[in-house]
Amino acid sequence: MFGWEFPPHISGGLGTACYGLTKALMKADVDILFVAPKLFGDENPGNIRLINASDVSVDVRDEVYKTHQDKISFMEIDSTLLPYASEEEYYNLVEQLESGISLEQVNLHTQKFQFAGGYGKNLMEEVRRYAIVASAIARDNDFDVIHAHDWLTYLAGIEAKRISGKPLVVHMHATEFDRSGENINEVVFNIEREGMEAADVVVAVSHMTRNTVINRHGISPEKVITVHNGVEPPADQSKVQIKKHLDEKIVTFLGRITYQKGPEYFIEAAHKILQKDSNVRFVMAGSGDLLSRMIRRVAQLNMGTHFHFTGFLKGDDVDRMFGLSDVYVMPSVSEPFGISPLEAMRSSVPVIISRQSGVSEILKHALKIDYWDVDAMADAIYALLHYPSLAKMFRIYGKTEVENIKWDQAGIKVKSIYKQLASV
Amino acid sequence: MKSICLYFQVHQPYRLSTYRFFDIGSKDNYFDDYANRYIMQQVAEKSYLPANEVILSLIKRFGSDFKVSYSISGMALEQFEKYAPKVIKSFQKLAETGSVEFLAETYAHSLASLNNKQEFKEQVKMQVNKVKELFGQKPVTFRNTELVYSNDIGDMVYDLGFRTMLTEGAKHVLGWKSPNLLYCSASNPKLKLLLKNFQLSDDIAFRFSERNWSEWPLTAEKFVDWLGKINERDEVVNLFMDYETFGEHQWAETGIFDFLKAFPEHAIKTAGFKFKTPSELAGELQPVSQLNVPYPISWADEERDLTAWLGNEMQDEAFGKLYELTTKIKRLKDDDLIRKWRYLQTSDHFYYMCTKWFSDGDVHKYFNPYSSPYDAFINYMNVLSDLYIRVEKATESNKITRKKSKAAVK
């Protein structure tokens, strides 16, 4: 299994998803070797066998090395390429750019790469080097199936398949179209396509994603299988009861403030509500490249006293924010899956989600709207705030529903894919 | 001689238009005139008109051996008049044959029997008058919305002057008893009850075109064969169903109209059945025993209870809020407000809010114009909120005019 990050050093949905799936597969008696570019030593893998790519020696005389190293040398790094940058990283970007990749430790014919991990400036370089390391790992280990998560690891997956001849599963957690809209990064897109073409099976996290890879990447439908994500049970059940200090109801947007997440639609919906009902406050939690534009829009609409920005929230602050919220809105323009509404539901917060999200394919107890339909969004918010039985229904059934969306189901489905591939 | 009692329900709700919260207090048309017209015209062409034609030909052919009964809600009658007057004419033609009994129900196809006796009575009277006006016949048999029945409802119906009522042959009420006999109410033995044979009724209404049903295709011969197998002492098979079964729920292509033409012939000629109306049967047959129904039953879903319309938090809030208006809105004597309030009482609105179909019941999905029960509830509550505002405003302005006129008298 090739991943890009491993808890606790994760910055987004990818790490969480890989971890959840891996644990579920282990539970289903699948033996897993999990490779990550960089381990920090404080991971708690349980029974998962972890390989730190930074510890693997590579023979520099190898063909693989040459091919990829050559490509690295002429690959221009696109500075706007931040495929999974979290809010935190967005602001720490400058620092990251400074740090970059560590020096290679050259030792005659063999060498080790020190991966920086994360999603810094030398991402492309790291992706290539990860492939080099993968070929070494594939040569030295015994396994039946290769599973690579998102484009970052696809070259590694392809290399591993080439060396070992074992079947390859690539897992689409997000596509380049989800991340960038129509202004896609061609290099990333090409790696995605290359990975999926080389794969024996493509796993998509939603039907929506499945359709994207079939229609946009031109992947043959027969080999694309949808496996919806699960959600981890909350780490700490005894979360403190949060006291609300405000009488007004609170409606929350929580996520990166980027094109993909549709923050502007949330603002327009808020504006509609506030014209009718001033007893509501709206919160936009997170940061991202659209933040300042959003702040300006709120000011322009003259609703600053009822619309608040919190900046990036982490850890307990996220739970506290959910605790304060009466409604959670995820107006994403394109969301391959979308785990955050599930987290809100787990905290008994009613959710409104866009139909353009993978999670809307599996949720029943959520209000679903088209992200662009500001009227419907406003209407849904208003209803949740004013018709008590509606919120009550969500609190009761939503919580139960989300508790039943487990990784185990995904694990069983992926295991059956493995079985089929291994038996061919 | 054994009988068959055919009763068809004819109903179309006034569907709501998309009504947003910012429409509250401004937009006063709650109903989707376009959709209502379109659907009514479609169903008229596909179902009501061709089905009436078949029934008329059967009556002509078999004379007094073939009779049917209809219950047509006030909501349907109004919309026929507005959007498909041809259908009224064709029902009038049927009425003229003397072989058709029209039943009474609540005008708004409402669940008022579960909430407000006075409103229930008013709606029944409205319905009776409407039927009299259109078909020259005063209904003497009652069927409640969705066949909802309980001892208490039976008492109210008796008080209104009816001596016969139709309801569901619910298993949990009948136990080992047969639905194919005449019963009477336990709380008022003078009220006679005809019970739907849901097995045979649903074979036509729901299963007719189901290809993975082991009995598919259902032929008239086969069906009459089943009719013939009822218990020796059974007296009447009550086949109760939506009239839209013919041509709408089951498309013409499934052969449903051919079935409708053929099975009465087989039933009469080869099995010796007679088709009778509810009031005829109530006059001829003796009730075999009392039926005790302390909790309301209905003809919906496996449970045969009220949970398709009431019971989840949203349905209960909406239903409660709707009838909370009763006293205030009646005091206003504003015909337009009361009319709208009654349209909102139609049971369909609560059916759309049912969450049971999350787990089962494709039937619910089929009849639901909303993509989720939540959407149905939100839209309904927005409309109801507007009605509240209008009732409040009208009440206020009434007070002011009253004060003014008092002052003028002084």
Put the structure in a nutshell:
The complex is a heterodimer of chains A (424) and B (410). Chain A is of the alpha/beta class and 424 residues long. Chain A has helices at residues 13-27, 63-74, 87-99, 123-140, 154-164, 176-180, 186-198, 207-215, 263-276, 291-300, 316-324, 340-346, 374-386, 388-403, 407-423, and strands spanning 33-36, 49-52, 57-59, 105-107, 110-112, 146-149, 168-172, 201-204, 224-226, 249-254, 280-285, 307-311, 327-330, 351-354, 367-369.
Describe the structure.
The complex is a heterodimer of chains A (424) and B (410). Chain A is α/β, with parallel strands linked by helices and 424 residues long. Chain A is built from 15 helices and 15 strands. Chain A has a six-stranded parallel sheet, sandwiched between helices. A four-stranded parallel sheet of chain A has the order 6-7-8-9, sandwiched between helices. In chain A, helix 5 packs parallel to helix 7. The longest helix of chain A is centred in the first third of the chain and has 18 residues. About 8% of the residues of chain A have low confidence. By secondary structure, chain B is an alpha/beta fold. Chain B has two domains: 289 residues, 7-stranded beta/alpha barrel, CATH 3.20.110.20; 97 residues, no CATH class. Chain B contains 16 helices and ten strands. In chain B, the strands form two sheets. In chain B, strands 1, 2, 3, 8 and 9 form a five-stranded parallel sheet that branches. A five-stranded mixed sheet of chain B has the order 4-5-7-6-10. The longest helix of chain B is centred in the last third of the chain and has 37 residues. Chain B is globular. Classes of the chains: A alpha/beta (424), B alpha/beta (410). The interface between A and B is medium-sized, with 23 and 21 residues.
